Amino acid sequence: MSALEELLAEAQRHRIFSAAAWSVSTADSTLDAGHMGTRHWGGPELDGTELWDLASVTKPVVGLAVLVLVEKGALALTDQLGELLPGYGDTDKAPITVGQLLAHTSGLPGGTPLYRTAPTRPELLEAVRTLPLRAEPGTAVEYSSAGFILLGLLAEAAGGRSLDALVAQLVAEPLGLTGLTFRPDAVAQASAVSTEYCTWRDHLVTGEVHDENAVVLGGIAGHAGLFAPLADLTRLGRALLRGGDGILGPAAFAEMTRCHTDGLALRRGLGWQGLDRVASPVGAAPGPDSYGHTGFTGTSLWVDPGAGLSCVLLTNRVHPRRDGRRFPAVRRAFHHRAARLGGGTPAP
Protein backbone atom coordinates (compact mmCIF):
# COMPACT_ATOMS: atom_id res chain seq x y z
CA MET A 1 0.00 0.00 0.00
CA SER A 2 1.44 3.38 -1.01
CA ALA A 3 1.65 6.30 1.39
CA LEU A 4 -1.21 8.00 -0.46
CA GLU A 5 -3.46 4.95 -0.36
CA GLU A 6 -2.67 4.49 3.32
CA LEU A 7 -3.68 8.09 4.07
CA LEU A 8 -6.94 7.85 2.13
CA ALA A 9 -7.85 4.43 3.49
CA GLU A 10 -7.45 5.78 7.03
CA ALA A 11 -9.71 8.73 6.19
CA GLN A 12 -12.29 6.37 4.73
CA ARG A 13 -12.22 4.26 7.89
CA HIS A 14 -13.04 7.43 9.82
CA ARG A 15 -16.04 8.01 7.51
CA ILE A 16 -14.70 11.27 6.08
CA PHE A 17 -15.82 9.90 2.71
CA SER A 18 -16.96 6.55 1.35
CA ALA A 19 -14.68 6.57 -1.68
CA ALA A 20 -11.53 8.08 -3.13
CA ALA A 21 -9.56 8.00 -6.37
CA TRP A 22 -6.24 9.69 -6.99
CA SER A 23 -3.30 10.13 -9.29
CA VAL A 24 0.07 11.85 -9.16
CA SER A 25 1.57 12.28 -12.61
CA THR A 26 4.34 13.86 -14.60
CA ALA A 27 3.67 15.14 -18.11
CA ASP A 28 4.23 11.65 -19.50
CA SER A 29 3.72 9.07 -16.78
CA THR A 30 1.84 8.23 -13.61
CA LEU A 31 3.83 7.96 -10.39
CA ASP A 32 0.97 6.77 -8.18
CA ALA A 33 -2.73 6.19 -8.78
CA GLY A 34 -5.54 4.15 -7.37
CA HIS A 35 -9.07 3.96 -6.05
CA MET A 36 -10.67 2.60 -2.91
CA GLY A 37 -13.94 2.46 -1.03
CA THR A 38 -17.56 2.19 -2.12
CA ARG A 39 -19.81 4.36 -4.27
CA HIS A 40 -21.91 4.96 -1.19
CA TRP A 41 -21.93 3.48 2.29
CA GLY A 42 -22.81 -0.19 1.91
CA GLY A 43 -22.74 0.11 -1.87
CA PRO A 44 -20.59 -1.53 -4.56
CA GLU A 45 -16.80 -1.29 -4.50
CA LEU A 46 -15.12 1.12 -6.87
CA ASP A 47 -13.53 -0.29 -10.01
CA GLY A 48 -11.73 2.89 -11.11
CA THR A 49 -14.05 3.88 -13.95
CA GLU A 50 -16.59 5.76 -11.82
CA LEU A 51 -17.92 9.20 -12.60
CA TRP A 52 -17.32 11.88 -9.97
CA ASP A 53 -19.26 15.09 -9.49
CA LEU A 54 -16.47 17.62 -10.04
CA ALA A 55 -18.43 20.47 -8.43
CA SER A 56 -16.39 23.68 -8.79
CA VAL A 57 -13.61 21.97 -10.73
CA THR A 58 -16.14 22.70 -13.48
CA LYS A 59 -15.05 26.35 -13.31
CA PRO A 60 -11.53 26.08 -14.79
CA VAL A 61 -12.78 23.70 -17.49
CA VAL A 62 -15.41 26.25 -18.50
CA GLY A 63 -12.65 28.86 -18.19
CA LEU A 64 -10.60 26.93 -20.74
CA ALA A 65 -13.52 26.99 -23.17
CA VAL A 66 -13.92 30.75 -22.65
CA LEU A 67 -10.21 31.32 -23.29
CA VAL A 68 -10.36 29.29 -26.50
CA LEU A 69 -13.17 31.61 -27.62
CA VAL A 70 -10.97 34.58 -26.68
CA GLU A 71 -8.09 33.21 -28.72
CA LYS A 72 -10.45 32.64 -31.66
CA GLY A 73 -11.54 36.28 -31.46
CA ALA A 74 -15.13 35.59 -30.42
CA LEU A 75 -14.52 37.33 -27.08
CA ALA A 76 -11.92 39.60 -25.50
CA LEU A 77 -10.81 39.66 -21.87
CA THR A 78 -11.64 43.37 -21.82
CA ASP A 79 -15.18 42.94 -23.15
CA GLN A 80 -17.74 44.22 -20.67
CA LEU A 81 -20.81 42.42 -19.43
CA GLY A 82 -23.13 45.28 -20.33
CA GLU A 83 -22.09 44.97 -23.97
CA LEU A 84 -22.39 41.19 -24.14
CA LEU A 85 -25.57 40.18 -22.34
CA PRO A 86 -29.01 41.70 -22.85
CA GLY A 87 -30.43 43.23 -19.70
CA TYR A 88 -27.08 44.07 -18.10
CA GLY A 89 -26.35 47.41 -19.74
CA ASP A 90 -28.23 49.43 -17.12
CA THR A 91 -27.05 47.46 -14.07
CA ASP A 92 -24.12 47.88 -11.71
CA LYS A 93 -22.56 44.86 -13.43
CA ALA A 94 -22.29 46.54 -16.83
CA PRO A 95 -18.54 47.38 -16.51
CA ILE A 96 -17.48 43.90 -15.31
CA THR A 97 -15.06 42.38 -17.83
CA VAL A 98 -14.59 38.80 -18.98
CA GLY A 99 -11.14 38.83 -17.37
CA GLN A 100 -12.55 39.97 -14.03
CA LEU A 101 -15.12 37.19 -14.06
CA LEU A 102 -12.38 34.63 -14.74
CA ALA A 103 -10.15 36.02 -11.96
CA HIS A 104 -12.95 36.38 -9.39
CA THR A 105 -12.46 40.16 -9.20
CA SER A 106 -15.91 41.05 -10.56
CA GLY A 107 -17.21 42.27 -7.20
CA LEU A 108 -20.00 39.69 -7.27
CA PRO A 109 -20.62 37.89 -3.97
CA GLY A 110 -19.51 34.35 -3.26
CA GLY A 111 -21.62 31.32 -2.44
CA THR A 112 -25.24 32.44 -2.49
CA PRO A 113 -28.06 29.86 -2.15
CA LEU A 114 -30.21 31.52 -4.78
CA TYR A 115 -32.24 28.35 -5.32
CA ARG A 116 -34.03 28.86 -2.01
CA THR A 117 -35.94 31.88 -3.32
CA ALA A 118 -35.52 31.35 -7.07
CA PRO A 119 -36.72 27.80 -7.87
CA THR A 120 -36.84 28.12 -11.68
CA ARG A 121 -34.14 28.90 -14.24
CA PRO A 122 -35.60 32.30 -15.25
CA GLU A 123 -36.00 33.29 -11.61
CA LEU A 124 -32.47 32.24 -10.70
CA LEU A 125 -30.93 34.08 -13.64
CA GLU A 126 -32.88 37.18 -12.66
CA ALA A 127 -31.59 36.76 -9.10
CA VAL A 128 -28.03 36.73 -10.46
CA ARG A 129 -28.75 39.84 -12.55
CA THR A 130 -29.97 41.74 -9.49
CA LEU A 131 -27.36 40.52 -6.98
CA PRO A 132 -25.75 43.58 -5.33
CA LEU A 133 -22.01 43.91 -5.88
CA ARG A 134 -19.86 43.68 -2.78
CA ALA A 135 -16.91 45.56 -4.28
CA GLU A 136 -16.02 47.75 -7.22
CA PRO A 137 -14.99 45.47 -10.11
CA GLY A 138 -11.24 44.88 -10.16
CA THR A 139 -10.58 45.98 -6.58
CA ALA A 140 -10.96 42.75 -4.57
CA VAL A 141 -10.91 38.98 -4.90
CA GLU A 142 -14.05 37.14 -3.88
CA TYR A 143 -14.70 33.63 -5.09
CA SER A 144 -18.01 33.84 -6.92
CA SER A 145 -20.09 31.07 -8.43
CA ALA A 146 -22.47 33.75 -9.72
CA GLY A 147 -19.61 35.12 -11.81
CA PHE A 148 -19.10 31.76 -13.47
CA ILE A 149 -22.81 31.36 -14.07
CA LEU A 150 -22.48 34.56 -16.10
CA LEU A 151 -19.35 33.24 -17.86
CA GLY A 152 -21.35 30.23 -18.99
CA LEU A 153 -23.97 32.55 -20.50
CA LEU A 154 -21.26 34.64 -22.16
CA ALA A 155 -19.65 31.56 -23.66
CA GLU A 156 -22.97 30.44 -25.12
CA ALA A 157 -23.63 33.90 -26.59
CA ALA A 158 -20.13 34.19 -28.09
CA GLY A 159 -19.86 30.58 -29.22
CA GLY A 160 -23.36 30.22 -30.62
CA ARG A 161 -23.90 26.86 -28.94
CA SER A 162 -24.94 25.46 -25.60
CA LEU A 163 -22.31 25.36 -22.86
CA ASP A 164 -22.13 21.58 -22.83
CA ALA A 165 -21.52 21.52 -26.59
CA LEU A 166 -18.81 24.18 -26.29
CA VAL A 167 -16.98 22.35 -23.50
CA ALA A 168 -17.16 19.12 -25.49
CA GLN A 169 -15.91 20.67 -28.73
CA LEU A 170 -13.31 23.10 -27.37
CA VAL A 171 -11.90 21.17 -24.40
CA ALA A 172 -12.98 17.54 -24.06
CA GLU A 173 -12.55 16.38 -27.65
CA PRO A 174 -9.14 18.00 -28.31
CA LEU A 175 -7.74 16.60 -25.05
CA GLY A 176 -9.34 13.17 -25.34
CA LEU A 177 -11.48 13.53 -22.22
CA THR A 178 -13.95 10.88 -23.30
CA GLY A 179 -15.90 10.65 -20.04
CA LEU A 180 -16.23 14.35 -19.24
CA THR A 181 -19.88 15.32 -19.36
CA PHE A 182 -22.68 17.45 -18.04
CA ARG A 183 -25.85 15.51 -17.14
CA PRO A 184 -24.70 11.87 -17.40
CA ASP A 185 -27.04 9.51 -19.20
CA ALA A 186 -28.63 6.55 -17.44
CA VAL A 187 -25.69 4.23 -18.11
CA ALA A 188 -23.16 6.74 -16.81
CA GLN A 189 -25.33 7.56 -13.79
CA ALA A 190 -25.22 3.92 -12.78
CA SER A 191 -21.44 4.19 -12.35
CA ALA A 192 -21.43 7.49 -10.48
CA VAL A 193 -20.21 7.99 -6.93
CA SER A 194 -22.95 9.28 -4.63
CA THR A 195 -22.68 12.59 -2.85
CA GLU A 196 -25.28 13.01 -0.11
CA TYR A 197 -28.88 12.52 0.83
CA CYS A 198 -30.39 15.87 -0.16
CA THR A 199 -33.35 16.92 1.98
CA TRP A 200 -34.33 19.51 -0.63
CA ARG A 201 -34.66 16.74 -3.27
CA ASP A 202 -35.52 14.00 -0.78
CA HIS A 203 -33.18 11.37 -2.21
CA LEU A 204 -29.56 10.24 -2.30
CA VAL A 205 -27.85 12.27 -5.03
CA THR A 206 -26.10 9.97 -7.50
CA GLY A 207 -25.15 10.94 -11.03
CA GLU A 208 -26.89 14.30 -10.84
CA VAL A 209 -25.25 17.56 -9.93
CA HIS A 210 -24.89 18.15 -6.20
CA ASP A 211 -24.93 21.96 -6.39
CA GLU A 212 -28.50 23.18 -5.91
CA ASN A 213 -28.15 26.35 -7.99
CA ALA A 214 -26.90 24.18 -10.86
CA VAL A 215 -29.91 21.88 -10.41
CA VAL A 216 -32.26 24.82 -10.95
CA LEU A 217 -30.25 25.80 -14.05
CA GLY A 218 -30.81 22.35 -15.54
CA GLY A 219 -27.51 20.74 -14.60
CA ILE A 220 -25.45 22.68 -17.16
CA ALA A 221 -23.82 25.81 -15.75
CA GLY A 222 -20.52 27.63 -15.68
CA HIS A 223 -19.91 27.10 -11.98
CA ALA A 224 -20.77 23.41 -11.46
CA GLY A 225 -22.25 20.41 -13.22
CA LEU A 226 -19.39 18.49 -14.85
CA PHE A 227 -18.75 14.82 -14.13
CA ALA A 228 -15.63 12.88 -15.07
CA PRO A 229 -13.72 9.68 -14.28
CA LEU A 230 -10.25 9.74 -12.73
CA ALA A 231 -8.66 8.99 -16.12
CA ASP A 232 -9.95 12.25 -17.60
CA LEU A 233 -8.73 14.44 -14.73
CA THR A 234 -5.34 12.71 -14.92
CA ARG A 235 -5.21 13.35 -18.66
CA LEU A 236 -6.18 17.00 -18.16
CA GLY A 237 -3.46 17.48 -15.54
CA ARG A 238 -0.82 16.01 -17.84
CA ALA A 239 -2.01 18.20 -20.70
CA LEU A 240 -1.64 21.29 -18.51
CA LEU A 241 1.92 20.25 -17.61
CA ARG A 242 2.61 20.14 -21.36
CA GLY A 243 1.28 23.65 -21.86
CA GLY A 244 -2.26 22.68 -22.77
CA ASP A 245 -1.52 20.25 -25.62
CA GLY A 246 -2.26 22.93 -28.17
CA ILE A 247 -5.83 23.87 -27.27
CA LEU A 248 -4.37 27.29 -26.37
CA GLY A 249 -1.33 28.95 -27.90
CA PRO A 250 1.71 29.56 -25.66
CA ALA A 251 0.87 33.22 -25.04
CA ALA A 252 -2.76 32.47 -24.13
CA PHE A 253 -1.71 29.58 -21.88
CA ALA A 254 0.78 31.82 -20.07
CA GLU A 255 -1.92 34.46 -19.65
CA MET A 256 -4.28 31.87 -18.19
CA THR A 257 -1.82 30.59 -15.60
CA ARG A 258 -0.14 33.81 -14.46
CA CYS A 259 -1.38 35.66 -11.39
CA HIS A 260 -3.92 38.36 -12.29
CA THR A 261 -4.46 39.60 -8.74
CA ASP A 262 -1.08 41.03 -7.72
CA GLY A 263 -1.58 43.49 -4.87
CA LEU A 264 -4.81 41.82 -3.76
CA ALA A 265 -5.27 39.36 -0.92
CA LEU A 266 -5.50 36.12 -2.93
CA ARG A 267 -3.67 34.73 -5.97
CA ARG A 268 -5.88 33.98 -8.95
CA GLY A 269 -5.21 33.15 -12.57
CA LEU A 270 -7.91 33.02 -15.23
CA GLY A 271 -10.23 30.28 -14.01
CA TRP A 272 -7.57 28.90 -11.69
CA GLN A 273 -6.58 29.43 -8.08
CA GLY A 274 -2.94 30.17 -7.35
CA LEU A 275 -1.04 29.11 -4.24
CA ASP A 276 -2.09 31.45 -1.45
CA ARG A 277 0.42 32.11 1.32
CA VAL A 278 -2.25 31.60 3.98
CA ALA A 279 -4.97 28.94 4.10
CA SER A 280 -4.09 27.26 0.81
CA PRO A 281 -6.37 24.24 0.34
CA VAL A 282 -3.37 22.15 -0.73
CA GLY A 283 -1.01 23.32 2.00
CA ALA A 284 2.53 24.60 1.45
CA ALA A 285 3.99 21.63 -0.44
CA PRO A 286 3.32 22.74 -4.06
CA GLY A 287 5.56 25.39 -5.59
CA PRO A 288 4.75 29.11 -5.63
CA ASP A 289 3.78 29.03 -9.32
CA SER A 290 1.43 26.08 -8.92
CA TYR A 291 -2.27 26.40 -9.65
CA GLY A 292 -5.41 24.33 -9.50
CA HIS A 293 -8.96 24.17 -8.24
CA THR A 294 -11.03 22.39 -5.64
CA GLY A 295 -14.67 21.29 -5.56
CA PHE A 296 -17.17 21.29 -2.71
CA THR A 297 -17.87 17.58 -3.13
CA GLY A 298 -14.24 16.75 -2.25
CA THR A 299 -12.55 16.94 -5.65
CA SER A 300 -9.41 18.74 -6.78
CA LEU A 301 -6.84 19.09 -9.54
CA TRP A 302 -3.54 20.83 -8.79
CA VAL A 303 -0.67 21.42 -11.21
CA ASP A 304 2.89 22.27 -10.14
CA PRO A 305 4.94 23.18 -13.22
CA GLY A 306 8.11 23.74 -11.19
CA ALA A 307 8.01 20.20 -9.80
CA GLY A 308 6.56 18.75 -12.99
CA LEU A 309 3.66 17.20 -11.10
CA SER A 310 -0.10 17.07 -11.50
CA CYS A 311 -2.15 15.81 -8.55
CA VAL A 312 -5.77 14.65 -8.75
CA LEU A 313 -7.79 13.82 -5.65
CA LEU A 314 -11.42 12.76 -6.02
CA THR A 315 -13.58 11.97 -2.99
CA ASN A 316 -17.21 12.24 -1.95
CA ARG A 317 -16.48 14.09 1.29
CA VAL A 318 -20.15 15.16 1.51
CA HIS A 319 -21.22 11.54 1.95
CA PRO A 320 -22.99 10.60 4.08
CA ARG A 321 -23.29 14.23 5.22
CA ARG A 322 -21.69 17.64 4.78
CA ASP A 323 -18.85 17.78 7.28
CA GLY A 324 -16.14 20.19 6.22
CA ARG A 325 -14.06 20.05 9.38
CA ARG A 326 -11.94 16.94 8.80
CA PHE A 327 -11.42 16.75 5.04
CA PRO A 328 -9.13 19.80 4.53
CA ALA A 329 -6.38 18.22 6.64
CA VAL A 330 -6.58 15.05 4.53
CA ARG A 331 -6.19 17.05 1.31
CA ARG A 332 -3.19 18.95 2.66
CA ALA A 333 -1.57 15.71 3.80
CA PHE A 334 -2.23 14.19 0.36
CA HIS A 335 -0.30 17.00 -1.34
CA HIS A 336 2.49 16.86 1.22
CA ARG A 337 3.01 13.16 0.48
CA ALA A 338 2.52 13.62 -3.27
CA ALA A 339 5.34 16.17 -3.38
CA ARG A 340 7.75 13.50 -2.20
CA LEU A 341 6.97 11.38 -5.23
CA GLY A 342 8.42 14.09 -7.42
CA GLY A 343 11.53 14.42 -5.36
CA GLY A 344 10.34 17.65 -3.80
CA THR A 345 11.04 18.82 -0.29
CA PRO A 346 7.61 19.64 1.13
CA ALA A 347 7.27 21.82 4.17
CA PRO A 348 6.87 19.98 7.48
From TrEMBL:
PANTHER family: BETA-LACTAMASE-RELATED, BETA-LACTAMASE-RELATED DOMAIN-CONTAINING PROTEIN
Key words of the record: Hydrolase
Membrane-crossing residue ranges in chain numbering: none
Pfam families per UniProt: Beta-lactamase
GO molecular function: hydrolase activity
InterPro entries attached to this UniProt entry: Beta-lactam-related, Beta-lactam/transpept-like, Diverse_Enzym_Activities
Annotated organism of origin: Streptomyces triticagri
Protein name per its UniProtKB record: Class A beta-lactamase-related serine hydrolase
Domain Beta-lactamase-related stretches: 14-330
